[in-house]
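INTERNAL AUDIT FORM
Audit reference: QA-55
Scope: verify that the stored structure record matches its stored sequence.
Auditor: D.O.
Record contents follow.
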Amino acid sequence: MHIIKNLGLFEFLKIILNRVEKLYKYHYLKNTDFSVNFLYEGDIIIKLPKVTFWQTIIGRWDILKKNSDFASRPTSEVLLRKTIFEMYQSGYICSQLSIIDIGCWIADNSIVWSKLLSNNGIVFAIDPSSKNLNFGKMIAKLNNIENIKWVQAVCAERDGIRLDFDGSIDHTSFYRTTSNNYLVSKSIDSIILDTSSAIGLLHIDVEGFELSVLKGSEEVIVRDRPVITFEQHISKENLELITEHIKSYDYRIFMINEILPGNALDCRNFLALPREKGLPSLKKFEQSNGRDIDIYSATIGPAIIEI
């Protein structure tokens, strides 16, 4: 009663509900033996770092939250995942070429895609957050994955731009600043061209900074002609600026035909394909049964729609 009196009933209930939510997440993960099946990407099984019941009680919550987020990813952006997997399966994207995953967050894409590569192909997992990268490294070690290069950076059209952000660096948007509180940008070209890696896939998820990242990827795009995927909030961001920029490299642009439950209603993924490669062969699914495989179509039509 003394605790309730000091905190207030509302705050006390918030604490209790918060603990209940964490225990629910713990039990869900424990029941899966802290492993995740990426069902639509070749049944790839990924092991997660285990957290004990007592660690959950006393506060190892950052790992628990990241585990829980990672466990939800196989049923998030399913059509994007399925499409990329099928492009590798068919050889449309060569498995010997490397991948850039910028804004890799908790490395759910980087970890799975690393399993699709062969020979000297590697994933460049790029993120400004050391916590995100450390979590990814932990999972890679658990699963004996060695073909990921972890890069802590925020990217823009060139090196040396001063950038700041609001909130947590683990998941944020960046903007130019003249203040003394800033990070210094790198470009994709400066990161990649120092290596001997040719790029087959460029995946960009940088919360509104996509055009800047693309402008800093010009040499990679011209040299390697990778498949490009990017995300946009189509009621908030100027999609035409990005599509016209990519089309100037002789690419065709497609919207992936799915809405993303849990995201903003206007959030869509896009696919840019080099014109000379033609179209990939994608497996059709019965749209009326889409919910059964966690695909929520944005409109009636094929998996990818040209814009």
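Auditor finding: record pair retrieved intact. The radius of gyration is 20 Å.
Action required: none
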